[in-house]
Amino acid sequence: MAHDLLAAVVSRQEEEEEEDEGETAAASSAFGEGMAKRGLLVLDPKIWGKLPEELLERVLLHLPLQSLARMRTICKKWDHYVFTSAFTKLRAQIWQQKPWIVMTSTEKSLFVYDSGLDTWHQVPIPFNAHELHVVAAAGGLLCFSNAWFQWPRMYVCNPMTQKWRRLPPMNTWMISTVGMVYEEEAAATTPPAAASSSFKVLVCGRLEDHSMITEVYDSVTNSWTIGGNPSPARKHGGHASLWCDGIFYCLTFPFSTLCLLAYNLRQGAWYEVPVRMPAPIMSPSLVECKGRLMLVGGLEEEHSVFVIQIWELDSNKHEWVELERMPSQLCKDFVTNMVPSKPLSCFATGDFIFLMIPSSNNYMPALMFNLTHRTWDWWPTSDFPTELPELNIGQSSGISFEPRLDASVF
Prior knowledge:
By secondary structure, the chain is of the alpha+beta class. It has eight helices and 24 strands.
């Protein structure tokens, strides 16, 4: 109903906004055709186009974010309104935006799972993403790169607004790990002004001579700076760095020398976290859930019994505390489908931890663990779009982000 109502309002504005007539008419026509193709009712614009502004604003407030992102492009007035601080605050009271999960991408589109609406979206990428994939996310922004290849390039974009920027070249010849953080700071004014925002990208990798280097990109200066000396090269592998409580964390590689590394962004220094790792652990994955750092992996116990466990980091005691163990029968069913050459892949979003084993032709099996209710459930294969493309070489599968219209790339 909200979509029909907005279509009617747009048609009415064609007559009233002469300065935007060409732009609005084209948008309205395309929108109306799309509504008709989907078999949705289009209301009479001469009647519904006279809605009071206050009611129209309420309609916009109740639209899902994906619909709102499309609607704002229809006319300049709406585009301006949805970015005001008043609209943002009101919408936050009505909608509790749930995270989206980037499963895979092509050079033109992202395939994301909307955990709030339990549906899938195919979101266009506003630049040519050939050989690129999402390597990090923060504050509604996605970082693309051809990481794990020589002389990588990077892009950052807001998929909801389709705004993007290419980051300047870095010194890094080959990337080992990438992390990203989005920072917001409220202005100290009366009345409070809009919060200023910026983002940083952490890259640790190798130079051509194979020596290690750390670089940090700052969107404020649009430049890279050299960070603290990394740990020895043997300790950095192809894992993403997670931002948790002001620190970037990543696991070492190979797993035979498994330990937890941390990078203090303010101090510009790497250090090894003094915590004993569960051993021996197979396919370890680091995940972050609402400020909690967790470790997921497999252990082989007595009589060759394989179990999958979840641990949480107790930073005060400097130890990993066992949080959950996958039920034995469920674990057997999951392990049956494991592929020796495909490691366990884990990611977290909201209250859920996802465990999956991507292969060349499918994304299953996939299990979900609910941290709040302490329950396990399968992610139904029927929910996966049939057109979901295969994973690219080196591509991460399952990167969570919170979609936002107000996250700026500049």
